[in-house]
Amino acid sequence: MYWPRAAAAGLLLLTVTHPPVSAQAGEYTFNTDWVLNPNPKLCACNQEGQIMACISQVVAECEAAGAYANAIPMCRADWSQGPAVLASQPYIFLDIIKMSAVKCQHPYTFTIEQQASFLGATMRGVEYKSVFLANKINGARMTELTLDQLVNNIKMPLGDAYNFVEGRKWFLEPRVPVNVGKQVGKDVPKVQLNFNVKSVSGIDEVMFEFQAVVSIVMHWSDENIWAGCRANGEDIEEGRCQYVWKPKLLFPNARSIDIPTARKYLWTDLETKTATYMIDVTGTFFAPMSFRTFPRDEHQLPITVAVDASPTRRELRWQPVSAQLDSSILQPEDGKEIISGWKILSADVVEHPYLPVDWIGLSGSDGPLHTFVDAILTRINIATNTTNGPDSLSAANTVSAVTCKVTVSRTTIFYMLNYIMVWCGHVSPPY
Questions:
Q1: Burial of 157 from C-beta contacts in 10 A (0-12 / 13-18 / 19+)
Q2: Closest among 115, 117, 62 to 85, alpha carbons compared
Q3: Are 42 and 61 in contact (CB under 8 A)?
Q4: CA distances from 268 to 204, 239, 274 (A)
Q5: Phi, psi torsion values for 85, nearest 5 degrees
Q6: Strands, E, within 181-273: which ranges?
Q7: What is the C-alpha to C-alpha distance for residues 93 and 281, in angstroms, rounded to an integer?
């Protein structure tokens, strides 16, 4: 078994070794739902028979990155070896075409002719390009081809079809945004996050939990954004909208969580190169509590949201962050109560690091897992020419998180009335 990235890049080597005749590129067409990069780069990497021009453009990009070039995967290769780099490090090519998708033109927008040329640059063009042309498959249709269609209509061997589908999924996956005016490797991308607390209920002092409904709004700029999208529900994962990067979220202190698909919204603005993503979250959350000042106690009920696994806090940061109480809490209709026995006072928020899995702590001081973790750290130090200790492994896996703390206070009068009613029930004589 071999990785699809290496497989697709390995198939490319057939094109490098025996370059087919270049196809005439189709004319670009303008569509208000997407835009071409006004300053296109790495375009040769999307075209058949242009491997040497592609390498020259890669080298130029790496030189332009200067001291921060090592943060770009394709810049870690020794390009003085020319196309031989792809033989020794075949996954590099998929990193290149993934970068060219944002630096030049995304494959989803390719015309039929451009798609055929792109296919010739990445796979066995002579074998499959003519079938793609005959079936009038453009970039958008290429992203939708199923395994069954590749095998039965395109006549790909099953192994190649699997590699095509898996490799396509990898290089079409949206990249972490690069904030407008910032540089990869130098500046940590930032995403603004706002909590709007719509309701708090079911505060359980025995189970140490509470229920809440919140809207979470995220907003960021991305110099590589190309797709116009105004969608909600399932549509945000369809068409061009699926290629707009969206953060994958983790709720570390949630005991149960529900994010209704119908309450997901995604908007992009191509003029300002910004995106806005909003979700509604309903959940039950764990909350430590102290009852030392009971029955006049206050509690901070936390709702924590973190980036799920990747990217790390070195690669993406929630900033700025804010929280507010919804108008339905601040100004309830007709002065009605919105939660029994409690008063919701405020909502505050803070960004902080979060370690999803503490491998150093879990590995203990001895045993096979400890030996394995030590070996991983040694391998990383050799690869990066460093002598970092165990803490560096934890830092490399730490993600950005935001905790919204909703402050509530017990309604003392309500509690005392309940107490008196219960007490009276015990001492009243029977009739």
A1: exposed
A2: 62
A3: yes
A4: 40, 14, 6
A5: -60, -40
A6: 190-204, 209-221, 230-232, 249-250, 254-258, 264-269
A7: 39
Q: Which residues 6+ apart lie within 8 Å of 86 measured at CB?
A: 9, 12, 13, 16, 92, 93
Q: If you average pLDDT over every residue of the chain, what do you get?
A: 83
Please report, as a single letter, which amino acid is at residue 124: R
DSSP 317-375: EEEEEEEEE-HHHHS-GGG--SSTTEEEEEEEEEEEEE-S--HHHHH-SSSHHHHHHHH
Question: H or E stretch including 57?
Answer: helix 51-65
Cβ-in-10-Å burial (0-12, 13-18, 19+) of 209 comes to buried
CB distance 29 to 111 below 8 Å: yes
For residue 388, name the pLDDT band (cuts at 50, 70, 90): low
What tokens does 370 get? 């400890």
Given a contact cutoff of 8 angstroms between Cβ atoms, the answer to whether 126 and 15 are in contact is: no
Instruction: Specify whether the backbone of 334 is left (phi greater than 0), alpha (psi in -120 to 50) or beta.
Output: left
242 contacts: CB under 8 Å, gap ≥ 6: 236
What strand order describes the sheet that includes 399-410? 249-250, 298-307, 399-410, 342-354
Q: Please, what is the angle between helix 91-103 and helix 112-122, to 10°?
A: 150
pTM above threshold 0.90: no
Q: What does the block give as tokens for 13?
A: 């080597």
Question: Residue written as tokens 């898996």?
Answer: 166
Q: What is the pLDDT of residues 80-122, one digit of tens each?
A: 988 888 877 877 888 888 888 888 999 999 999 999 998 888 7
Distance (Å) of CA 312 to CA 247, 307, 357, 392: 12, 8, 12, 13
How far is it, in rounded angstroms, from Cα 138 to Cα 406?
A: 51
Position 310 pLDDT exceeds 50: yes
Name the residue type at position 411.
T
